[in-house]
Design goal:
about 150 residues, about 45% helix
Length: about 150
């Protein structure tokens, strides 16, 4: 005796199988994107490049494809150091550097939508072009940051 629901069950099973394949493909793509983000976040390499001057969101990379070397940054009096110690060792190195360079003041700020009040407005303030009279130092303790530095001819 033939099951009267065979055709419906076959169609339902085919739809389920098709959806599982689609879900699997989506999960593979998502995992690949997560790996790319993790790789970028864990990268030990500082990237420097000329800004692309587009009007896109300031949080985008804005990489013009024209790299800037650490030597070029140094010629503009921009120093870069990656601290490799424990948080306590790194803080000790930061304190030593502050004494050597004569830095009198410093503060710590956590920049994220959940930690910084008026996050979107603050980002616009940080992004607005401005000049500092004194030497400025930035210690990035977690995450990453974008800094726009003008070269001597700009």
């Amino acid at each position: 005796m033939k099951n009267p629901y065979d055709e419906q069950q076959t169609q339902i099973l085919a739809r389920i199988t098709n959806n599982v394949v689609k879900l699997n493909d989506t999960l593979l793509e998502l995992n690949q994107k997560i790996e790319e983000i993790n790789e970028m976040n864990m990268s030990d390499t500082m990237r420097a490049y000329y800004y692309d001057n587009s009007m896109a969101d300031q949080r985008e990379l804005h990489d013009s494809g024209h790299a800037v070397t650490i030597e070029q940054l140094r010629s503009m009096r921009v120093e870069y150091t990656k601290l490799e110690g424990t948080p306590e060792e790194n803080l000790e190195q930061i304190n030593k550097l502050c004494v050597e360079r004569g830095y009198q003041n410093r503060d710590e700020i956590a920049i994220s939508p959940t930690l910084l009040e008026n996050y979107e407005a603050k980002l616009k303030i940080f992004f607005a072009e401005h000049i500092h009279e004194d030497e400025e130092i930035r210690f990035v303790l977690e995450g990453r940051g974008f800094f726009d530095v003008r070269d001597k001819a700009d």
